[in-house]
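Q: My labmate handed me this sequence with no annotations at all. I'd like to see what the chain might look like in three dimensions before we decide whether it's worth expressing. Could you predict it?
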Amino acid sequence: MQNTAPRETERGFTLIELMIVVAIIAILAGILIPNFVNARSQAQTAACESNLRAIATALELYYADNQIYPPASAAAVQPSLLTANGVAYLNNTPKDPAAQSANATYALTTTQATGGSPATYTIVCPGVHTGSTLAKVPLVGGTSGSVCGTNCAATKIEYFAGQGLMVAP
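A: Here is what I predict for the chain of 169 residues:
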């Protein structure tokens, strides 16, 4: 005699139950993945802003000790550029996570004091940033207090001596 067990005693999931679970996971992924992508863009922008401030601090320390900025015209920012009299004002070469190339570096342009005009500098970030992550940063050439806004079309971050961070298209 064969021993046949009734189907009710078998345990398992039906196809409908499995499809519902897969649908719930797909809905959650659809909600969460865009948030993670935006968080990555925001982290890249924050890293660029931090690097720009660190370079600006090194430049100001250099100027305080030497009373002159290092001569530069779109020069790559690296420790050798900000070294004087055996003092390194920048310990490592900053890298922008939003840069299109691994070899891309921050660019520094300096102007020395002449005829009553103060010495200045501009540092340009090599990366291309998402406009939504730059919404709270002032626009280059914008009116005082104006920021890029929610539908910002800017993609570049620059640091200007005496003005700080600004964004440009």
